[in-house]
Write a structure and sequence with these properties.
Layout lengths: L10 H23 L5 H11 L4 H29 L3 H22 L4 H15 L9 H25 L5 H24 L6 H24 L10 H31 L6 H16 L5 H18 L4 H33 L23 H25 L5 H13 L7 H25 L6 H19 L5 H15 L9 H26 L3 H21 L6 H21 L11 H18 L4 H23 L7 H14 L6 H17 L28
Helix pairs in contact: 1-2, 1-6, 1-16, 2-6, 2-17, 3-4, 3-5, 3-6, 3-8, 4-5, 4-13, 5-14, 7-8, 7-9, 7-10, 7-12, 8-9, 8-20, 9-12, 9-20, 9-21, 10-11, 10-12, 11-12, 12-24, 13-14, 13-18, 14-18, 15-17, 15-18, 16-17, 19-20, 19-21, 19-22, 20-21, 21-22, 21-24, 22-23, 23-24
């Protein structure tokens, strides 16, 4: 990219900036016309809630208004009752802010903005009125009205003037994801699993699938025809999540089958792989003729497997099952994409994980949420203590901004660099505000001239806000400049007040940066390892859970963690101990563990006891990994797996026995890829007529 590209924004960035500026000036006009207490809050709110997508602006605005109302209500409760005890008041506001921030971080959806706002709004509305607690209700009410004015103006302009809907963006993101999925799946079928670019593609797909769930929240607030398709988009997103372990498991079993057969796979398996790859690359829906063709090849593959050694037969059955899953789930993805873009309706085929797939538990890091909450509390305490100790009349600004900045950047591993960038932008905004207020504004007469002067700064700032690479600089200017100027109906050239308030604001940001650097910042590798450990804990818990295990809960939590890990893995060196751990393998082992829990309930007691031994050994292995990262599965686990496979050889081809054998086989070749081929201790009974019909083979 040209290094001067930053000076030449795209047309859509300019349009966004002009729309945001128009909304801000409309909000300023309304606030001045109705003589609101602090018109600059309305202007700043426009720059806080504005987003290039109309639906995102609306959702963000609604969440902000709701959070402001809740935070304001808490101010009305706390200030009059605790104003005579500064320590208790500081403790109460800081504790409330920390709790709300922790809840926000645990929620991890766009609505988490409500909880965050509820927390720091209490600081923004509480600290400035500690000297006049009797005005708590009127001050909070004025603040809510000013924010409401900004929100309404931003929403109106965003929707009415060149609206950019989220629906088409959603369709483009789905197309990009399906292109990546096609690349990954076809490369797997062609035996290219060792290509390092495929690992990056899988990580990107995980991050995109996780992010898509949050993005559909914005679509729900959109005015386009895509608004009603949120349910379909989220159904597709759940297929995307399941696609990752299916393709990864397919790569694993095909590699194991190739090793076991010295690369001489059966004709039907080769044909099934080739036909599936061709169909995936075609991008066509699964026709009835093609479905029948796949069913015929699958039947031939299972017939050919009957003449193979037992371990090879087990691998063929696993490969066929994974290919069947891939065909079904990709067919659903194609149909859902068509439903979203064309408004059609298709019946879905893939339901291996049952109706509970509608539930989507996500990873929750209670430790980091608590840690971040405590950090925000500590920064607020330090700033407030400095304010009280010095008796600084404008010190409330430092107390406000210290906690606010900690909240805004709490989602990152190391917020310090981003905080510094925001701090430097804010310092530059102070200089700009000084020039405007004391050199430009005195020469201005009338609203139109005021708009022209503000536009010289805010319009270029808006183009910076539209791009992720410069968003922080734009936010530092756009959000802070209106309050630094103290935009009112009448110009007040009070240099002492200007310097006092803005110095306090910058000091609050510095305290937040320093506190975060010393207390809150953690390394990327440390955060990534916490995600790995959480996955290992889940697998151990699933292995020890006697019944009722939910495969969907584990699937979504672990893929969610994979999505969180993806950008962290990209930032770590190749020799990092985190990078050396195969997250997808852990995911496959976790799913196979839960599948064992589900199927064992329908098996005879001896088989159940054998599976329980396997589950106990798997739990012990992942508990050891939590204590020692490089721990490897021991020979006892291999023997337990072989014993359980032998025990299941006597259970025929019932659905439960087939499912349990697939799960045990998957665990064996995943945990012990270089082990000898499995062979039962005794011959298996011949398959009885009709038992083949019990197999789950409908494509």
């Amino acid at each position: 990219m040209n290094r001067y590209a930053i000076l030449w924004p795209e047309i859509r960035d300019v349009v966004f900036s002009l729309k945001t500026f128009a909304a801000a000036m409309l909000a300023l006009f309304v606030a001045l016309y109705f003589d609101l207490q602090n018109p600059y809050w309305a202007v700043g709110t426009v720059y806080i809630v504005s987003h290039p997508l109309s639906g995102a602006s609306t959702s963000k605005a609604i969440y902000r208004l709701l959070g402001t109302v809740i935070g304001g209500a808490m101010t009305v409760i706390l200030i009059p009752n605790l104003v005579n005890s500064p320590v208790l008041l500081t403790l109460a506001i800081s504790l409330w802010m920390g709790i709300c921030l922790a809840i926000s971080l645990l929620d991890r959806t766009p609505r988490s903005y409500t909880f965050m706002l509820a927390g720091y709004t209490t600081a923004l509305t509480g600290f400035p009125i500690v000297d006049s607690p009797d005005t708590a209700f009127t001050y909070v009410t004025a603040r809510v009205i000013e924010i409401a004015v900004g929100i309404i103006c931003a929403a109106l302009v965003s929707r009415l003037v060149f609206p950019r809907h989220a629906g088409p963006v959603l369709a483009d993101r789905i197309d990009a994801w399906m292109k990546d999925a096609t690349t990954l799946a076809t490369a797997t079928l062609k035996g290219e699993r060792n290509d390092p670019e495929l690992a990056s593609t899988a990580q990107k797909m995980a991050a995109d699938a996780v992010d898509l769930h949050g993005f559909t929240t914005h679509v729900a607030y959109d005015t386009s025809g895509h608004r009603d398709l949120v349910r379909l988009a989220r159904t597709l997103q759940r297929r995307m999540v399941a696609m990752l372990p299916i393709v990864s498991g397919l790569a694993d079993v095909l590699s194991a089958l190739s090793r076991a057969t010295n690369g001489q796979q059966t004709p039907a398996i080769v044909e099934l792989k080739d036909q599936t790859a061709v169909w995936l690359e075609s991008g066509q829906a699964l026709s009835e003729d093609k479905r029948a063709e796949f069913l015929d090849i699958i039947a031939r593959a299972e017939t050919e497997a009957a003449a193979m050694p037992q371990w090879q037969e087990l691998l063929v059955h696993n490969a066929v099952a994974r290919l069947r899953d891939l065909i079904q789930i990709w067919s659903d993805c194609i149909d859902l994409k068509q439903d979203i873009t064309a408004g059609s309706r298709h019946d879905l085929r893939w339901n291996r994980f049952g109706s509970s797939l509608d539930k989507r538990p996500m990873h929750k890091d209670y430790g980091m949420a608590l840690y971040s909450g405590v950090s925000a509390m500590l920064a607020t305490f330090i700033a407030t203590a400095f304010w009280i100790a010095t008796g600084w009349s404008q010190g409330s600004a430092a107390a406000m901004m210290a906690g606010v900045l900690c909240c805004i950047f709490a989602t990152t591993d190391d917020p310090t660099p981003m905080m510094k960038q925001f701090l430097f932008a804010s310092i530059a905004a102070v200089g700009c505000a000084f020039v405007l207020e004391f050199a430009v504004f005195p020469a201005i007469h009338g609203y139109v001239m005021l708009l022209a002067a503000l536009g010289l700064v805010l319009i270029p700032v808006g183009t910076l806000m539209a791009r992720p690479s410069t968003m922080l600089v734009g936010m530092g200017f756009g959000v802070n400049l209106p309050s630094m100027l103290g935009l009112q109906g009448r110009l007040s050239l009070d240099l002492a007040s200007f310097l006092n308030s803005n110095t306090a604001l910058v000091l609050g940001l510095i305290i937040a940066c320093g506190t975060t650097a010393l207390v809150r910042s953690v390394g990327t590798e440390w955060s990534a390892f916490r995600l790995l450990r959480a996955g290992w804990t889940d697998i151990a818990a699933a292995a020890r859970k006697p019944q009722g295990s939910d495969v969907t809960a584990l699937l979504h939590r672990m893929v969610d963690r994979l999505g969180l890990l993806a950008p962290r893995l990209a930032a770590l060196p190749a020799d990092s101990y985190v990078v050396q751990n195969d997250v997808m393998k852990d995911l496959r082992n976790g799913l196979n563990t839960v599948e064992l829990q589900r199927h064992k309930q329908l098996l005879p007691q001896p088989s159940r006891m054998a599976i329980d031994d396997v589950l106990s050994s798997v739990a012990s292995f992942y508990q050891r990994k939590q204590q020692k990262t490089e721990a490897a599965p021991d020979n006892n686990l291999l023997q337990t797996l072989d014993h359980s496979l032998s025990a299941l050889s006597d259970n025929g081809s019932s659905s439960a026995a087939e499912g349990a054998r697939r799960a045990l086989t998957g665990l064996r070749y995943s945990l012990f890829p270089d082990a000898r081929d499995f062979a039962a201790n005794e011959n298996r009974p011949a398959e009885k007529p009709g038992e083949q019909d019990l197999k789950e083979h409908a494509a």
